[in-house]
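ARCHIVE CARD
CATEGORY: sequence design from structure
SOURCE FIELD: tokenized fold
FIELD CONTENT:
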């Protein structure tokens, strides 16, 4: 049975050439996949051998992992059990496939990277580690057990001629002796010193008394302490000025222990409080037990008391039943070093203000001011300790006095402006009252001609100012019957208007505008009073005056492979009323809307446009009351990226085909004439 038509002569040669070429390409691809990987590392550094597991059909099944160096197995893994060759003990670690990067000690952090399931990390590299390594995977439940010949790596060790064997990371328990081996090539010509966390050991008073360096450079630390935890560095140098360093990490483990317990604590009655257990644990804490007055204290059975993640007790509202002596006992995998000393909790009422300062005081330069403040202790009626402070700076030296809680400042200067705090403190708690002092220092800069238009829930203000460069405006407002002022910062100094929303209908408000320049707060404008309109179910409660939101700024339209990408900046004012943006586009010279999209982001990609056509694009900003601010139109051409790619792909494909045909004909002719010399003569 003949499947393919019979071919003779040049046709047979052509088909043979094409088939041979395909085999050559496939063979080259396989060889490329099995090429070894060449790695380089310095003595004392670490290196990752990245090896992935090729599971049959892509489904994980049981496997054995072997890392060979020459004829010996350096590392093996099966079902959670590992084995290491003697010279690699403590230096090879399997990288966790579930983590996006394997665990380094803090001084050894590396960039984010993904590694294969069979990857290993070789640390404290020595010169003897140089050579060939093979990653081999065996599937014991499958026949054949091996799917390929493994992945090969060649490690080149460089980095100096001073160190022969660097130290390795070690983990011990507190109190044991630790030996960091660091051997140099020529002890007679090389000077060696040790550092901890980048600081010479001689700078650590306690550690330097417990450590010594042997003749071969080995660092010995006796009676290790939890404070010895950290990174140790072996530094070798010679007379020529060459320096070589190698680092190793010491992990000191110990039983969970309490390091501090205050003998007495005062909790504020009726307020939240926290009772901490100050402990340290390595390995991490596994359990923490509390006792009260000698009995087990379980927060789950006490209303209003909760465990925090760190084991602390959180009291949501302290009362007299929480008085008592508490003790905590921390545990980890190694156990505990015992229970903390007793911490006696006393419940005491917080201070209570009897006189508080006003929210705002306004004074002129050179005047004086008295700010009252007084409080009583919640339990015995005595006066608690009262302290005055100023946020961001100190009280004016030589010009202030405090008498029975009252603060007096004389000869007021411009620098006295700011927020002052009156704090009343007892052993249980501190309560604070704040007030702000404003100083009129530039009378000519006050805003003027302040006018207002109201609706049921908003007031729109406009004003004039002699200065609009390097200044900021803010609106201060309050209800007439209230003493508390609220503020609204105007987004830009170019806008001499603002809309205050969320007001109560049928209420009289007082407004004034503050101008702030580089010297600080200036004077206020004259205040203005206005009533908001009464609530009418047939009327909207939104402001209907001038547009309360600016237009999108710096609109840009850039062609991309997928369409037109539109970007813009937010409006310069009115973002407190912002709802969303609307992107609109239409073909050039057409008035109707071709397409629109709503978004809250500052960018949008317009897709499915006709290539080679021009479009007009603009962006609208919508406020919560559906008012619009429209940007200018931008005309842009939508290029034909897809057509260009299709034409380019066709041209390249045609050229490749012609080149293959030309090469095939040339080889056929050459081979034909070599086999027929008589024809060549003719």
């Amino acid at each position: 049975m003949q499947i393919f038509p019979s071919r003779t002569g040049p046709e047979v040669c052509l088909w043979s050439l094409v088939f041979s070429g395909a085999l050559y390409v496939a063979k080259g691809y396989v060889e490329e996949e099995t090429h070894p990987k060449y790695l380089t590392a310095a003595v004392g550094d670490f290196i990752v051998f990245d090896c992935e597991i090729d599971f049959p059909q892509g489904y994980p099944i049981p496997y054995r992992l072997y890392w060979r160096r020459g004829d010996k197995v350096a590392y093996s893994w099966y079902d959670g059990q590992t084995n290491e060759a003697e010279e690699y003990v403590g230096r090879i670690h399997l990288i966790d496939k579930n983590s996006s990067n394997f665990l380094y000690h803090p001084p050894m952090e590396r960039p984010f990277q993904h590694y294969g399931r069979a990857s290993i990390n070789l640390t404290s590299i020595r010169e003897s580690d140089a050579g060939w390594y093979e990653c081999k995977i065996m599937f014991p439940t499958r026949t054949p057990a091996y799917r390929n010949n493994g992945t090969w790596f060649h490690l080149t060790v460089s980095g100096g001629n001073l160190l022969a064997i660097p130290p390795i990371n070690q983990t011990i328990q507190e109190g044991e002796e630790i030996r960091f081996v660091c051997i140099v090539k020529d002890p007679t010509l090389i000077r060696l010193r040790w550092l901890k966390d980048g600081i010479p050991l001689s700078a650590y008073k306690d550690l330097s008394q417990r450590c010594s360096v042997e003749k071969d450079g080995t660092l010995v630390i006796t009676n290790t302490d939890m404070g010895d935890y950290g990174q140790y560095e072996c530094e070798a140098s010679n007379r020529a000025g060459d320096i070589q360093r190698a680092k190793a990490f010491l992990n000191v483990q110990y039983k969970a222990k309490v390091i501090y317990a205050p003998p007495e604590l005062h909790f504020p009655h009726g307020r939240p409080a926290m009772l901490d257990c100050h402990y340290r644990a390595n390995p991490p804490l596994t359990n923490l037990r509390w006792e009260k007055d000698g009995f087990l204290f379980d927060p789950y059975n006490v209303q209003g008391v909760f465990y925090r993640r760190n084991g602390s007790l959180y009291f949501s509202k302290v009362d007299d039943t929480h008085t008592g002596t508490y003790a905590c006992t921390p545990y980890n995998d190694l156990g505990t070093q015992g229970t903390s000393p007793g911490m006696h909790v006393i419940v005491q009422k917080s201070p209570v203000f009897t006189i508080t300062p006003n929210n705002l005081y306004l004074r002129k330069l050179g005047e004086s001011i008295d700010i009252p403040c007084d409080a009583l202790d919640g339990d015995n009626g005595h006066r608690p300790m009262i302290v005055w402070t100023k946020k961001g700076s100190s009280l004016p030296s030589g010009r202030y006095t405090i008498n029975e809680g009252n603060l007096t400042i004389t000869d007021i200067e411009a620098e006295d402006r700011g927020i002052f705090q009156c704090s009343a403190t007892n052993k249980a708690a501190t309560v604070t009252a704040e007030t702000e002092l404003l100083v009129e220092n530039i009378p000519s800069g006050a805003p003027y001609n302040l006018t207002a238009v109201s609706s049921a829930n908003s007031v729109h203000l406009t004003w004039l100012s002699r200065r609009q460069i390097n200044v900021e405006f803010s609106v201060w407002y309050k209800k007439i019957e209230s003493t508390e002022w609220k503020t609204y910062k105007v987004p830009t100094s170019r806008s001499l208007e603002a809309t205050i929303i969320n007001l109560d209908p049928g209420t009289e408000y007082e407004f004034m505008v503050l101008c702030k320049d580089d010297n600080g707060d200036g004077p206020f404008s004259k205040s203005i009073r206005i009533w908001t309109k009464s609530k009418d179910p047939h009327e909207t409660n939104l402001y209907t005056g001038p547009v309360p939101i600016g237009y999108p700024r710096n609109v840009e339209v850039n062609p991309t492979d997928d369409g037109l990408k539109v970007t813009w900046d937010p409006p310069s004012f009115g973002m407190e009323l912002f709802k969303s943006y609307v992107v609109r586009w239409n073909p050039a010279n057409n008035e109707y809307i071709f397409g629109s999209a709503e978004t809250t982001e500052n960018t949008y990609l317009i897709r499915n446009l006709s290539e080679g056509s021009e479009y007009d694009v603009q962006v609208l900003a919508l406020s919560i009351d559906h008012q619009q601010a429209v940007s200018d139109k931008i005309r842009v051409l939508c290029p034909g990226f897809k057509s260009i790619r299709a034409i380019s792909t066709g041209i390249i494909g045609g050229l490749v085909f012609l080149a293959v045909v030309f090469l095939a004909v040339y080889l056929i002719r050459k081979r034909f004439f070599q086999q027929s010399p008589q024809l060549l003569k003719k």
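CARD ANNOTATION: Residues 1-32, 97-112, 537-546 have pLDDT under 50 and may be disordered. The longest strand covers residues 243-260.
SHELF: design records, drawer C
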